[in-house]
Specification:
Radius of gyration: 15 Å
Shape: globular
Number of helices: 6
Helix content: 40-55%
Number of strands: 5
Largest sheet: 5 strands, parallel
Mean pLDDT: 93
Strand content: 5-15%
CATH architecture: 3-Layer(aba) Sandwich
CATH topology: Rossmann fold
Strand order of the largest sheet: 3-2-1-4-5
Number of domains: 1
């Protein structure tokens, strides 16, 4: 069973949601899930704060990014030609958060927060990739997302809610 998940979201995620993200990642860490995230302030850091073990894969925009990520940015970003170099690196990093460094190890699911509960902002790029690959997305902005996440995790670990 793939026990990788992606924890991402807006840098300006509200404090109560950041605290929830930390609790969620702490619970997933106890269930031996591996966090894949992007090392950014806000949501990414909140997810990282909940990981007690060393089970993380942090993808940074400053990493040497594989060429395949450019293809994903061109395909999934609504206006890739308008991206400045650093923003393109951020979008490329988003592809690795979902699919892994080589593009062949996708996460099982994504936990995130966006202002409108949709595929918006920089996080939206990662969510479009996840949706394309039918990877479940649990956006904590949306009512019921936390409950649905608990059900999925409990189902996969053989526990009941």
């Amino acid at each position: 069973m793939n026990k990788l998940y992606c924890g991402i979201g807006a840098r300006d995620t509200p404090q109560d949601i950041l605290e929830l993200m930390t609790r969620v990642s702490k619970g997933l860490d106890r269930k031996r899930y591996v966090l894949r995230s992007g090392g950014a302030k806000g949501a990414d850091s909140a997810f990282e704060a909940g990981v007690v073990s060393t089970r993380t894969e942090i993808m940074l925009a400053s990493d040497t990014l594989p060429v395949w990520t450019d293809v994903f940015t061109d395909f999934f970003h609504p206006n890739p030609s308008a991206l400045k170099d650093y923003v393109r690196k951020l979008m490329n990093r988003n592809a690795m958060q979902i699919l892994g460094r080589c593009g062949s190890r996708p996460v099982s699911f994504v936990v995130c927060w966006t202002k409108d509960g949709k595929e918006s902002g920089g996080t939206g790029h990662a969510l479009r990739i996840a949706n394309y690959y039918n990877i479940p997305v649990f956006n904590l902005k949306n009512e019921g997302a936390l409950h649905e996440l608990k059900e999925l995790v409990n189902e996969r670990t053989g526990q009941r809610t």
